[in-house]
Amino acid sequence: MSKIGQAISEIQTLESVSKEDTWLNRIHPLSKLILTVFYIAVTVSFHKYDLFGLFAMILYPAVVFMVGELSFKDALRRLRIVLPLVLIMGVLNPFFDRTPLLKLGNIAVSGGVVSMVTLMIKAVLTVLAGYLLIATTSIEKICYALRLIHVPKIFVTVVLLIYRYISVLLSEAHRITEAYSLRAPRQKGVHYKVWGSLLGQMLIRSMDRAGVIYESMQLRGFSGDFGPGKKEKAKTSDFLWPVIWCGIIILFRLFPVIRLLGSLFV
Length: 266
What we know:
This protein is mainly α. Helix content is 69%, strand content 3%.
């Protein structure tokens, strides 16, 4: 399978996972959206040297992976492009901050190393939190939750259509590259002389297909907003899930839970 075909397959797999009938998927999308935003805000608020405090924040994604029956290995595989980019953000910290901060045996660890590891953990946790929201909530429900908190309609519509038309663009690119490979079986990749014409054909074909999709959406009653049929009733569990986790997250932020647990066992 080509890289484009693999990307299309991963998008379709993620959509199917988000639409599974599990307890976590049935929670109201607004609850999961607010909880995710709150978790990310608290995670990035930790001090750059508060490494042990961040360790406690690993509990939330770990529990969601287990409750949602999601594969951590699949998550890392799907985020293989994003994670390396966020991990290199703090690579230069050890060169600018060389002040010794703590000791591991006879080895002095500088503040730059600690801040680099802290920044990397923050990046991984925030990316995983966003992934868990997408993996347990379909894009339509996320957009519906955004409208409930009065995010502008034009912004929500753009997010929804961009997400939908990415698959259209990738499928057209897959068809064009497959057709080109059949006409040039001994050639590796696409020759640079035909890049312009192929990109133009892909753009025209994807625009035509996107127009057909949008017309079918209008025939089904889409008017740029979510109609009454898309509304979801909130249940008691929809309120308990974010309230309990927000309380746990605030507890982890205000108190050094990991240090206190470590002092009990040492």
